[in-house]
Amino acid sequence: AVRVVRTPAALGAVVMAPELVTRIGRALAGGAPRILLAGAEGSGRGMLVEAQLAEHDRAVVRVDLAAIAADAEMAERLAAALREAALRDACAILDGGSALKDEIPRALAHAIAESASGLGVPLVFTLAVHPAWLAQAIPDLVEIDVPSPTFRERLELWQRALPPPLAERADLEIVASRYA
Predict the structure, then answer these.
(1) Whole-angstrom Cα distance, residue 156 to residue 161?
(2) Is residue 2 left, alpha or beta, with left meaning phi > 0 and alpha meaning psi from -120 to 50?
(3) Secondary structure of residue 78 in the 3-state scheme
(4) Helix, strand, or coil here: 130?
(5) Pairwise CA distance, residues 173 & 168, whole Å
(6) pLDDT tens digit sequence for 84-135
């Protein structure tokens, strides 16, 4: 549910509108921003953040919020993951994908609010929606919409992000077309 990313993709591997890349880069710059990147799964939100931070030699701690939300010890697991980010001076990417919408355990929203208030590192949420609970939990949240990639953009994204045996599969184009 938690992993540290040390060698993220380069910005050249990001397939996204340059204006959006610039906007997200500005949001990440300086201080300890709290950012929501809302958009479809597979749009490259987390990969873009990793690439932006790699430009500044900053690590990323990725947290699977959907897995933590189902855990009885969610608050403790989230706090431990965010402490790990703080110890590494890393950005924490909290990925909920499409699993977390407007209805989440109240304890998770409370744990996020509590952890975010005292944390001195960037927090980036990658979710499919703009949940009201998140804006209430984090008042200074910057919300950015990430549009779904086109079929060709998604195919290119996957070819760059997947390991060679998978990226070279002939049926990758068929799978990508199902998400278009």
Answers:
(1) 9
(2) beta
(3) helix
(4) coil
(5) 10
(6) 999 988 899 998 765 566 566 777 788 888 888 878 889 999 988 888 888 8
